[in-house]
Amino acid sequence: MIGITFATVISIGLPLTALLYACCKKRYIPFVLGVLAFVVSQVLIRIPILQYLGEHSTAYSMFSAMQPVLFAIVIGLSAGIFEELARFISMRFFMVQRDWQSGFFFGAGHGGIEAVLFVGSSAVFLLFSSTAIAYSNTYFISGIERFFAMLLHIGLSIIVLQGVVRKRFLYVVLAIIIHGVVDALAGILPLYVPKDSALLVVEVTVAVIALAVFNYSLWIKRKGVLQ
Fold first, then answer.
1. What Cα–Cα distance (Å) separates residue 84 from each residue in 8, 77, 96, 97, 144?
2. How far apart are CA 8 and CA 1, in angstroms?
């Protein structure tokens, strides 16, 4: 139960805390825009497309089986393209508040709703299930993963917002590449790492990249690009 409780705190508690803090700071609009950017780009567009291809395209299935590395790269970049362009469009055309704090809450909303949908909702369900103990370790790892994923989304949001403020689309391209690399590595590393250590290697890799990107976002703040 400890692992599932931990995952619930991270995947439900942190996003809710961020939302309440955003409301206190009058930055709830960036938070909501971050939520919408993820829901529209992933839940309503990208995931249904991938599901359709998986069910109806033989070429897609063959590609995933015959070229797993290239497939992981393509799938990873598709996530980066859809999500980062959604960030850019939301910030460029709908987000009036364009300071660092707004970028932070945008990322918290984006990563927060992902955590709620992919881990938090199922963790809450398992809390009231008799089989919860069997999934405790898995959800503990999932909770850690969601924490670093949220840090990554915050950092990527700051990078995209920097591009919007400075009117340089190159920063959006940078965010797409970083996002794509992270997602691609999650699919590639298990192919070459021993099975018993693959999960640890993937999670550590994601954590290191997330911390690096988040630290870069703090550097942007110190530099004064985003006040």
1. 27, 10, 18, 18, 23
2. 10
Q: What span, in angstroms and rounded, lies between the C-alpha atoms of 182 and 185?
A: 5
User: Tokens 């550590």 sit at which residue?
Assistant: 204
CB-based contact 9:125 (threshold 8 Å): no
Write down the residue that tokens 């340089």 correspond to: 168
Q: How many C-beta neighbours within 10 Å does residue 159 have?
A: 24
Gap between the Cα atoms of 7 and 110, Å rounded: 18
Helix (H, G, I), strand (E, B) or coil at 25: coil
What amino acid is encoded at 174 in this protein? L
Do the beta carbons of residue 43 and residue 158 sit within 8 Å?
no
Kindly state the DSSP code that residue 46 receives in the 8-state scheme.
I
Helical packing angle, 136-166 and 170-192, nearest 10°: 160
With contact defined as beta carbons under 8 Å apart, do 86 and 41 qualify? yes
Range among 45-54, 124-133, 138-147 with highest mean pLDDT value: 45-54
Q: What is d(CA 81, CA 73) in angstroms, rounded to the nearest whole number? A: 12
**125 exposure class (CB count in 10 Å sphere: 0-12, 13-18, 19+):** exposed
Q: How many residues does the chain have?
A: 227
Q: Tell me the pLDDT tens digit for each residue of 147-202.
A: 999 999 999 999 999 999 999 999 999 999 999 999 999 999 999 999 889 999 99
Distance in angstroms (rounded) separating the CA atoms of residues 23 and 42: 25
Report the amino acid identity of residue 85: L
